[in-house]
Structure prediction request, 177 residues.
Amino acid sequence: MANRSYLYSADSMPDDAGIPRQIRCVSEHNGDIPLAHMLMVGRGTTIVPSMIWNPPIGIAADYDGGADLLRDLLRVVGRGLEDDTDFAACVARTTAHLEKQRARYFVLETGEIVSMTGDDPAASVRRLASEDIPGAVARAEAAIAGRNDDWLASVRADWERHFASFYSEALYFSFSG
Prediction:
């Protein structure tokens, strides 16, 4: 089985009382937490109980802020990929799906990824929320502002790894209702 990160949207955050009533599937990505997922949970980032696993290893954030940040970065990345029809198709699919699955919050499920290292999953998520995600957001914001060309070039060169996740209304872990 591939280890994946899972991204959902919901109108409320998971909490100790339970999971949100309506959870929309957004995306899953094999092998790691891609840049796109980190950016989407990069605005108002908070650790929440997982909707799938027992430890507090979920991450929730503002949907609109994260979606806007990703769209802004995709626009800037695309300035160097004008002739790449695969990139254009990826951006079109991604942005259409984000509009369709819009809610108040993104919820990132990290369990399969953080369990791969053998480190404490909760500590790994705390580090992800306090260091990795803010670092990715800062690099993206600098690139959007025209101040991080080397990083932008590296993202552009490997755009599929960062942005070509599986976007669907049904993920490996889907929720009814």
About this structure: The chain has seven helices and six strands. The beta strands are 4-10, 23-30, 46-48, 58-62, 105-109, 166-167. Helices lie at 35-40, 63-78, 85-100, 111-114, 121-144, 149-157, 159-163.
